[in-house]
Amino acid sequence: MKMRSIFVIAILAATTAAVLFHGSVVDVQQSHHTERISGTGGDVLEEDPVGKLKVYVYDLPAKYNTKPVEKDPRCLTHMFATEIFVHRSLLSSAVRTLDPEEADWFYAPVYTTCDLTASGHPMPFDSPRMMRSAIRLIAERWPYWNRSEGVDHFFVTPHDFGACFHFQEEKAMARGILPVLRRATLVQTFGQRNHVCLKDGSITIPPYAPPWKMEAQLLPPATPRSIFVYFRGLFYDAGNDPEGGYYARGA
Ligand SMILES: *[C@@H]1O[C@H](CO)[C@@H](O)[C@H](O)[C@H]1NC(C)=O
């Protein structure tokens, strides 16, 4: 539940430009008795978006979202499960509107990372086709996409290099962001600045971690800690890239 609300806050915060997650730096400074955080750890959203922001959630055919999860429930606990939980939380969110005419923002639930191999690795090779197909449908059935080619639309694209949809950096960069998504807002875990797979205005979010795993790590607040916060950084894929090239980067 907690993780879900964090993601919703991240999404809502973007519309008010109140939160800039990507590139945030947290410096942990040690002193004799206490640890202090300085730097820009991300601004806090102070305004309550309820009543000010309305999000319309497209009702897409199940093949774009719930069907793949039924087929492979491992998608629910995978690090890319954000695409599922953002969708679920928006469905019952106070910012949701059922009337697209009054919407400020449109969300299309397309789960592009739920095609897992036997060993649980997501295969993004079908993602571009799936995304293009969903957008074609949205553009045909509703008038809102064509007004601005999706400027007021957002998508969750949590795969390694976001909407570049490839797990190897060179190939992801050569592909670039899927053209049909270039005007929309992308919510993604990939957050490296000045990278072709991160466009301006994207929202960087943490990968999904199942609540029971998070809860298992909870420490009593008074516990002395030498590490205050830890961000997972580079990923290496020794199997596919024995030379040690980058596989993907954490947010
Ligand atoms: C939006 O544009 C596409 C491509 O030109 C077209 O096929 C579609 O019918 C348009 N949608 C609407 C609702 O007019």
Automatic annotation (TrEMBL):
<dbReference type="Pfam" id="PF03016">
    <property type="entry name" value="Exostosin_GT47"/>
</dbReference>
<dbReference type="GO" id="GO:0010417">
    <property type="term" value="P:glucuronoxylan biosynthetic process"/>
</dbReference>
<protein>
    <recommendedName>
        <fullName>Exostosin GT47 domain-containing protein</fullName>
    </recommendedName>
</protein>
<keyword id="KW-0732">Signal</keyword>
<dbReference type="GO" id="GO:0009834">
    <property type="term" value="P:plant-type secondary cell wall biogenesis"/>
</dbReference>
<dbReference type="InterPro" id="IPR004263">
    <property type="entry name" value="Exostosin"/>
</dbReference>
<feature type="signal peptide">
    <location>
        <begin position="1"/>
        <end position="18"/>
    </location>
</feature>
<keyword id="KW-0328">Glycosyltransferase</keyword>
<keyword id="KW-0808">Transferase</keyword>
<dbReference type="GO" id="GO:0016757">
    <property type="term" value="F:glycosyltransferase activity"/>
</dbReference>
<comment type="similarity">
    <text>Belongs to the glycosyltransferase 47 family.</text>
</comment>
<dbReference type="GO" id="GO:0000139">
    <property type="term" value="C:Golgi membrane"/>
</dbReference>
<keyword id="KW-0333">Golgi apparatus</keyword>
<keyword id="KW-0735">Signal-anchor</keyword>
<feature type="domain" description="Exostosin GT47">
    <location>
        <begin position="52"/>
        <end position="235"/>
    </location>
</feature>
<keyword id="KW-0812">Transmembrane</keyword>
<dbReference type="InterPro" id="IPR040911">
    <property type="entry name" value="Exostosin_GT47"/>
</dbReference>
